[in-house]
Each structure stands twice: as C-alpha cells, then as structure tokens.
Specification:
alpha/beta; six-stranded mixed sheet; globular
Length: about 150
C-alpha cells in the first residue's frame, strides 16, 4: 500500500491531531512513519551586528520544539508497532520544505493536520496544508478537526 508515510509536524495540537491517521496509514502498509519538522532559517541573518548567541538560542528552541513533537509521535507510533524515523529540515517555506522532503525520501503519502478554516479566513490566512495540497505530486491526506479528507 504505502512504503513511506511523511508526517509533517510543528509540535502543535493541530498537527498532532493527525498523528493517529498517519500511524494507521503507515501500519496498514507496513511502512515507517517519517515525522518531519521544518525549521525556518534564522530570521535575523544579515541584520545589524552578528550575534551568535541569538542564532544558537533560536536553533536550540527549534530543536526542543521538534524533539517534543517527535517524542509524542514516537510514543503513539510505538504503541501501534510503527517505526518512526524523525527528520528535521531547514527551509524558508514550510510547505515547500515538506513537499521537497517527501520527494527526496521517496514518500508515497503525506498525512498532515489542518485547522480546517473555511471562507474568508482560508483565503486571507491560507495554510501550510493548503499549500502542500497545491504543490505536492504525492497524495496528501489532510486531517482537520478530527476528520480526514483526501486530495
């Protein structure tokens, strides 16, 4: 069925709400689950005086956030007998980082959470999930507010 399932997470409850669906899809295919956390580059590079401590603090905070999200996912997946292979990538745009990572690791499914906004809020705010749906040549399963919808 699936040989590798990519599960983007930012550690938030919204992204983790899709964990059960991602784990189920990986388990059905006997595939590993590849949780991925996209770190945006340090936002103050090239502005003012270089402050290495600021960069170090930023990267440490990003690594902590990724580790917390990964730990929760690995615990849930492990309880279902699904192997996790967490990955942290750096990219200036989360959606593009997700799609590029999915392609580079040979994922054949992306499962991710969404706020499930609609109407004007969706148009004005957009979402990473919407952008991934637009960019991805790989099937995407979006889980919003506790329900799944495929594209």
């Amino acid at each position: 069925m699936f040989s590798r399932v990519l599960f983007p997470t930012d550690g938030s409850d919204v992204s983790l709400s899709a964990a059960d669906a991602a784990i189920t899809m990986a388990k059905l295919g006997g595939a590993p689950l590849q949780p991925v956390y996209v770190v945006e580059p340090y936002p103050f590079t090239g502005i003012g005086v270089a402050r290495p401590a600021g960069f170090d603090d930023y990267m440490a905070a990003s690594r902590r956030a990724a580790a917390i999200g990964f730990e929760r996912i690995e615990r849930l997946a492990g309880a279902q007998g699904v192997r996790c292979e967490p990955l942290t990538v750096e990219h200036s745009r989360a959606a593009e980082g997700i799609v590029e990572t999915a392609q580079s690791i040979g994922a054949d499914l992306i499962v991710m959470g969404s706020h499930g906004r609609s109407g004007v809020a969706k148009l004005v705010l957009g979402s990473v999930a919407t952008k991934v749906l637009q960019l991805s040549p790989i099937p995407v399963l979006v889980v919003k507010s506790g329900e799944a919808s495929a594209a």
